[in-house]
Amino acid sequence: MQVRSLFLLLALILVAATAEAGKNKKEKAKKDGSKCEDWRWGPCVPNSKDCGLGYREGTCKDESKKLKCKIPCNWKKKFGADCKYKFESWGGCSAQTGLKTRSGILKKALYNAQCEETVYVTKPCSSKIKSKSKGQFPPLMS
């Protein structure tokens, strides 16, 4: 009986400590020394080349800040890394151009980015003919 009580007491202490630690993290995130609420953020600028780690500058009245950011190296340069789109499936292959097309509708614009509502992308048609019978094995010879 005492072991159960001791276990329950330890569990309560652990829960209380975890809740307090989470509270401190939230307070630190809010406490950045700025009372300004209307921040304007620029694009993420990579430290080198055109992708990877970088920084984003923000201004609000007479204050300015820099935040760390990251541009994935497979991002669509045409749209910008701060514009997130929901894309449809690829359309059929055009025999005239040798390209297939799909469109994307704006899902989210991060950091007040200026994004197009709808974008179109193309890619070359695949020269390989895909087999519909994936996962099937040829019959075994005896």
Global outline: flat
The total count of strands amounts to: 7
Structural class: alpha+beta
Low-confidence stretches: 24-31
Written account of the structure:
It contains one helix and seven strands; from the N terminus they run αβββββββ. The chain has one helix at 2-30, and strands spanning 40-41, 45-46, 52-60, 63-71, 83-87, 99-109, 118-124. Helices cover 20% and strands 32% of the residues. Residues 24-31 have low confidence and may be disordered.
Structure summary:
This protein has 1 helix and 7 strands, in the order H-E-E-E-E-E-E-E. By secondary structure, the protein is α+β, with helices and mostly antiparallel strands. Among the domains are: 35-72, Pleiotrophin/Midkine, N-terminal domain (Heparin-binding Growth Factor, Midkine, Chain A, Single Sheet); 74-125.
Strand and helix map with partners:
Elements: H1 2-30, E1 40-41, E2 45-46, E3 52-60, E4 63-71, E5 83-87, E6 99-109, E7 118-124
Antiparallel strand pairs: 1-3, 2-3, 3-4, 5-6, 6-7
Domain Pleiotrophin/Midkine N-terminal: 23-79
Subcellular location: Secreted
Family: Belongs to the pleiotrophin family.
Index terms:
142 residues, alpha+beta, Heparin-binding Growth Factor, Midkine, Chain A, four-stranded antiparallel sheet, three-stranded antiparallel sheet, 1 helix, flat
